Amino acid sequence: MRCSRSVILILAVLLCLLPGEVHADAELGGRFILFHNRIIDLSVESTAYTSVTLIWTSPRFMPSRGPWVQYDLRYARTEINTEERWQAATPVAGLPPPQAPGTLERTTVIGLDPCTNYFFAIRAVDAQGSWSKLSNSPLGRTLCYTEGVGGGIGGLPAAYTAYPLTLNVNMLGRVASVRVSTEGELASALVAKDPSEKHTFELDKGTRVVLTDGRAPELLKFSEASVVVPPPENTVILGAVYQFTAHATALSPPSAVNISPSARLLLSYDPEQVPENAVEISIAYYDAEKGWQLLEPVSGAVAEVGKVHGMVSHFTPFAILARLSEPAPASFQVTRLVVHPTRVQQGEVVTVTVEVVNTGGRSGDYNLVLMVDGEVREMRVLTLVPGAIRTVEFTLEGEAPGVHWVEVAGLVGEFEVVERVRTGRWWWSVIVAVLAVVVIVCIMLRRKTVPR
């Protein structure tokens, strides 16, 4: 017992001496679980002429504070090992949110200068707004190339000297790069895929990708659209709505872009999400004035379940649309005819109720007619949406004695009216005579009992 207490005391002292990079998330008398408050394994996975790919492990979090919700990655020409250098470093935009603890994270920093040393550092913020400590600060050096024909150590092959720029395509966090000329012409074909490899963006060699000012963009970004775009009538959207944006630099705002010849875009969907009444699945883009427009199909593309193709020449929101079969017209059924009560005295009220349901696929109007003894007594107009049920009640009063038939939409019922039972005047004479006899008898009996 003393040994256990001593161990706990030693652990408590050690925790107090730790440099603020770990936390204990347990009571002093229980088990200790240490949680790193910083990322310690940030490293350079690979480098290119104008980009560096980094990897790290998603850190664990304290359950009492909630999970990490955002990363902040920065780079500089000197090691980022102080708060002052962190504040002066350049932030990286468009980082994906943290994944589950222990997951390998990967991102590509683009827009860097060739043949240059860069240091990197990263922090994370939790659900309560608390930032982690600075990570380690690894060094990465971008590749070098020469201006002339040659290509010494680390030099770019001579065939690439006409393509001094790099175009990066970020597909939901996964980056593919290709060399381009100052006029935006691709030196080679590019195939960019998202991390799950469900969506693909393809550019052929020689394709020109230019902004409205004639410059070649540095970044094309494929992401989920931030605005909600409703689908066309009688159509549903399968999956998310996506958008492509073009940027002159990694940190610049989106700009209009032109792609010639058109790029090929492939989007995937889950076949189980397709409604049973879907008759056509296609890929479309959204135009603010014209609405949803189908993309031009890819020539020679083989149709596959779960995949759709289209040609893209400019960037707007994109989505997979499933057009549904035309809904059936409104159709009405009348049921549950109830006549209550079925026997009344003359002057009493009889109610007739029915249920009307719209079994069709569209809204519509229905004329409900009540007939009594073959004649129209009342008519009502009902407006019902598909699947709606309405209970309708009619009231009858003042019907003549006898049996009456009611009919509503082919449903037939009946009720009977009987005359009220009236007490005749001769009964009053009888009652008066009886009362007189009773009075006389009472008087005579009283006289007999009185003593003389």
Question: What would you say this structure looks like, in words?
Answer:
The protein is mainly beta. It folds into 4 domains: 36 residues, no CATH class; 123 residues, Immunoglobulins (Immunoglobulin-like); 159 residues, Sandwich (Chondroitinase Ac, Chain A, domain 3), CATH 2.60.220; 87 residues, Immunoglobulins (Immunoglobulin-like), CATH 2.60.40. 10% of the residues lie in helices and 44% in strands. The radius of gyration is 43 Å and the shape is elongated. The strands form 8 sheets. Strands 10, 11, 15, 16, 17, 20, 21 and 23 form an 8-stranded mixed beta sheet that branches. It contains 3 helices and 31 strands. Strand 16 and strand 17 form a beta hairpin.
Number of strands: 31
Structural class, from helix and strand content? Answer: mainly beta
Level-1 CATH class name of the largest domain: Mainly Beta
In total, the number of domains comes to 4
User: Unreliable stretches, pLDDT < 50, 5 or more residues?
Assistant: 15-35, 147-154
Task: Find the CATH topology of the largest domain.
Answer: Chondroitinase Ac, Chain A, domain 3
How large is the share of residues in beta strands?
35-45%
Calculate the terminal CA-CA distance, rounded to whole Å.
121 Å
Q: Give the fraction of residues assigned to helices.
A: 10-25%
The CATH architecture designation of the largest domain is Sandwich
Largest sheet, strands/sense/barrel = 8 strands, mixed
Overall shape: elongated
Q: Average pLDDT value?
A: 84
Number of helices: 3
